[in-house]
Known about the structure:
Elements: E1 4-8, E2 19-24, E3 37-42, E4 45-51, H1 66-75, E5 80-89, E6 99-100, E7 104-107, H2 135-147, E8 152-153, E9 157-160, H3 169-178, E10 182-184, H4 190-196, E11 200-210, H5 221-242
Bound molecules: hypoxanthine.
Amino acid sequence: MSDLAIIGGSGLTKLNGTVVTRQQEYETPYGMPSGTLTYGTYADKEIIFLPRHGDPHVIPPHKVNYRANIWVLKEHQVKNIIGINAVGGITGEMYPGRLTCPDQIIDYTWSRAHTFFEDNLSTAMHIDFSQPYSRSLRSLLINTAMNEKLDLSPAATYGVTQGPRLETAAEIERMERDGCDIVGMTGMPEASLAKELEINYVSISIVANWAAGKSSDEITMQVIEKNMRNALEKVHALLAAVIPKI
Ligand code: HPA
């Protein structure tokens, strides 16, 4: 049984390089996860892969069943999750094609089912979310990227928006004033749900485009997809180097 799961985001409905042993569909008390779980080995280590947006990619960020996704991984005794997220770059060093391992989150999402702790409680539950990501997994990723000479920014504040539309230039300006370096739609509530179930969680965020107003170019799906395709090679190199160490 694997204790590591990868949740693939946009551009990553399948994890190429996985030697697949089986695939299975599950139901949870929170409904169906985004897709079938794929079990296999990647870089000779057992992993479970789950496509966040389904396979094919049809589930928009605000419709992802984050609770079912995290619950089903907990039921499989998963202890570590690497989430892969496509994001827009807000600050100058977050240029398209770059990878980053965010260390902080500002949550701008609304009305998503975002907690396991709401019904039939014997006592109110408030998790400590000061550090939303696993320190040890982040260090491992950052050190591995450095050793492999892969361009990964070692910290970023990830502003999570509701989507599915992209932001206005004014919204991005406000987010920059708030301290956000990158903007995406899928970082929450995935990170806090993993924390609620005491699973170590980390994100590899892929900068797919300049955020709204940060470039004179229109943000098109073609630009996003092209940058994602190029950056995914780096993601694979990073995963291949880091997974055997987890
Ligand atoms: N905004 C929000 N989510 C995103 C973006 C963006 O610019 N690019 C990729 N995901």
